[in-house]
């Protein structure tokens, strides 16, 4: 594998993956680097795996190149795994972090701390023309706070306490967060796969 397209326009994600793949001599390009515009791929899957595969396989087919895509979100046990694959648009299609957090906290009103367990999930899919798509899943276990705390991060970070920490994700520096995040854990597994490859 000499080059790989990362199916994102998020510069932060691209930087993370570039760092990982550079030691293998793999050239990384993102959707920002491609000359033609890629229409948004509708996430119609019912799992993180299905949504990541939809993105990776659609773009791999179009360019005949290997493509890495991810799908991620928050699963809350007391809500039977919601918001799950709908994490980004939990409170509606406008994709408002604040509205999503407000809805989550409203649904957990009165739920005791020991029942507020949750995890961030990240699934990476690597699609290669003519080969079976591979998946790597990373999680970060924790629990949901009763109110938002912290100014860093985005999404549900202000209400998520990682296990064994006394700070929410939004109180951590980006370096601290990157050491324990669901994406980091998925990337570690991808790294193992690349070594074998």
UniProtKB/TrEMBL annotation:
Reaction equations catalysed: dITP + H2O = dIMP + diphosphate + H(+); ITP + H2O = IMP + diphosphate + H(+); XTP + H2O = XMP + diphosphate + H(+)
Cofactors that this protein relies on: Mg(2+)
Gene Ontology MF annotations: ITP diphosphatase activity
Binding residues annotated for substrate, in chain numbering: 8-13, 72, 154-157, 177, 182-183
Active site: 71 (proton acceptor)
Record key words, sorted: Hydrolase, Magnesium, Metal-binding, Nucleotide metabolism, Nucleotide-binding
Enzyme class: hydrolase
Entry EC no(s): 3.6.1.66
Cofactor binding note of this UniProt entry: Binds 1 Mg(2+) ion per subunit.
InterPro entries on file: dITP/XTP_pyrophosphatase, ITPase-like_fam, RdgB/HAM1
Entry keyword annotation includes Membrane: no
Gene3D superfamilies assigned: 3.90.950.10
Binding residue positions for Mg(2+): 42, 71
SUPFAM superfamilies membership: ITPase-like
Glycosyltransferase listed as a keyword: no
Biological function: Pyrophosphatase that catalyzes the hydrolysis of nucleoside triphosphates to their monophosphate derivatives, with a high preference for the non-canonical purine nucleotides XTP (xanthosine triphosphate), dITP (deoxyinosine triphosphate) and ITP. Seems to function as a house-cleaning enzyme that removes non-canonical purine nucleotides from the nucleotide pool, thus preventing their incorporation into DNA/RNA and avoiding chromosomal lesions.
Assembly and binders: Homodimer.
Family: Belongs to the HAM1 NTPase family.
PANTHER family noted in UniProt: INOSINE TRIPHOSPHATE PYROPHOSPHATASE (PTHR11067:SF9), INOSINE TRIPHOSPHATE PYROPHOSPHATASE/HAM1 PROTEIN (PTHR11067)
NCBIfam families, sorted: PRK14822.1, RdgB/HAM1 family non-canonical purine NTP pyrophosphatase
Name of the molecule in the record: dITP/XTP pyrophosphatase
Organism of origin: Sediminibacillus dalangtanensis
């Amino acid at each position: 594998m000499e080059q790989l397209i990362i199916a994102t326009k998020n510069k932060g994600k691209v930087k993370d993956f570039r760092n990982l793949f550079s030691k293998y001599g793999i050239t990384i390009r993102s959707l920002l680097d491609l000359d033609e515009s890629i229409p948004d791929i509708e996430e119609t899957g019912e799992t993180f795996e299905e949504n990541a595969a939809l993105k990776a396989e659609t773009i791999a087919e179009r360019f005949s190149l290997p493509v890495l895509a991810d799908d991620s979100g928050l699963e809350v046990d007391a809500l039977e795994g919601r918001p799950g694959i709908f994490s980004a648009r939990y409170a509606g299609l406008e994709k408002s972090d604040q509205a999503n957090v407000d809805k989550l906290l409203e649904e957990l009103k009165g739920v005791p701390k020991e029942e507020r367990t949750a995890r961030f999930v990240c699934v990476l899919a690597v699609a290669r023309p003519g080969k079976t798509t591979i998946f790597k899943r990373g999680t970060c276990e924790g629990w949901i706070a009763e109110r938002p705390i912290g100014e860093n991060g985005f999404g549900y970070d202000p209400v998520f306490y990682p296990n064994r920490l006394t700070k929410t994700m939004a109180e951590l520096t980006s370096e601290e967060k990157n050491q324990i995040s669901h994406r980091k854990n998925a990337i570690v597994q991808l790294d193992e796969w690349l070594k074998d490859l």
